[in-house]
Here is the input.
Amino acid sequence: MRLWLLDADVVIKFLEIDVLDKLAGLHELHASSSVIVEVKYYHRDGKKIPVNFRKQYIDTGLVIESTASIDEIRDILKLLPSLKREAIHAGEIESLAILVREKTLTFCTFDAAAIRTLPFLSVTDRAISAERLLNVSGLTLSSGNKLDIRLSEAYFRSNVDEGKKDFIYSVGKK
Amino acid sequence: MPTNNLADRLKKARESAGLTIGDAASRLGFANYQTLSNIEKGEREVKASELALFAKTYFCNLSTLLMGDDQPLAAMNLLWRKAPSGERRKEIEAYIKNRFEQYYFLERLLEIDKESNARLITVTPADIRTNNQIDGLASKIGYMLNLGSRPALSLQKVMEQILQIKILFIELSDFGSAAATVHPELGAAIVVNNEEAPWRINFTLAHELFHVITWDTFSPAEMEADEQLFTDIEKKADRFASALLLPEAEVRQELTKKIMEQKLPLSDIVDVAREFGVSTSAILYRMANLRLIPWDKANELSKNDELTMIDRRIRKDSAIDVPVSERFISLSAKCLRKGLISRGKFAEILSIDRADIDEFLEYRGLAEKEDVSVEIVAA
Here is the structure.
């Protein structure tokens, strides 16, 4: 699977639950330049663990870096209602722009606001919840690690539904 | 002048933020100003990963940089107690405006951007000509807001939650003191230096509340141009703050026993100030206002070294945490919980690292997800 790590939270969470390296061995992982800059450390077992993401994952080829152009980002902003434009961080907007351009990427996110923008960009079908990603990859969490509800398929689906409603209601308002 | 391309907009945004090209280049992490100069001339493309940093450094948002401001807001007039000087003022005001807009943005997302209740009373210059009238206004406001016998304890919460005044705690260092503004779209805001002690913040809030209430009574532009008028209004604001935070009946009641004994130990003065959440100077001048001590004595005591030492000793543990607007944090968390802002945006608004979001929410007792709803039975 060509897997797109949509935002820094996905990367941080996968580092926290110790599955990022395993996923890198199973899939072709991609992340945007903005996301790479934002991952500085993560928490595990109550400790703060620093990470040089570029050095450890990009330079070693475990994750492939992609960049969006300014025009692509502007095009994404045009597709979103004004309040949603401001509600999403610049790094996530870059990620969404690359996702729209690269049609063969499957992507993972568990950010409610980001999931709710997907119907506006017609990319919902290529999204996957963290829970499903771990299942199809045959990965289980090590003992003591409970799957956060935000990573669940149910949470993902409920936010997709909210996004669809937002999209339908916004159509007449444009 | 409207600008049509990114290079022009970046230049305009930098100038609005009061930054020189050298300062901006250094904050953006460019090795020299030439890179930024080339970007502003359209000779070097901006990388997507640089956009967030541009927006943060220039105190604006991504869509304004990329698409321009389709509906620009009216200008913000800040009434400073002591304004920062020169370009520094421009930079601080640009930062304040950005925080003010973020606060309003959260209210809009939650659909609570109704007209602010801040100006709950109409005040004419004739209504506040004398000190007695100002005391009367303070007493009326204290009663209307139900501030009780120790107004400082609830003032911030009441101003934020009931009056919907946006309180912006900002590190001003020595560059300026407090400020107030009332904006036609964004509502009312008060800027407080977050380095001040809690008891000084209480007084500042009460002082600035006076300016918000009288925003239409005295023109801020006129006050800035007329030093005498400004000084006069500032004295009125101080009098209002003193009367609001130290209600006459409660102060007299607290001090009655001491008055009977015609003696007041210095440590008791500090205790009373602490009890009411004000500075020792504030209680001394209020006592002079109420003719409990002569003005000369209040002046002398406010400079008394022994009293200062006692004050420091008694209050040494009182100002540990940096003050924050609980309402701003609570609105941000509510927007995150309802999926109205992304986690990246949440981290940006609250200036925390993404990796610390869960810890931050847990520490403040805020959940990220909507939990079970309770059915309300209509009476």
Q: What stands out?
A: The first strand of chain B starts at residue 79 and ends at 80. The interface with chain A takes residues 6, 45-49, 51-52, 55, 61-63, 66-67, 105, 108-109, 335-336, 338-345, 347-348, 353-355, 357-359, 368-369 of chain B (CB under 8 Å). The mean pLDDT of chain B is 88. Residues 86-109 of chain B form the longest helix (24 residues).
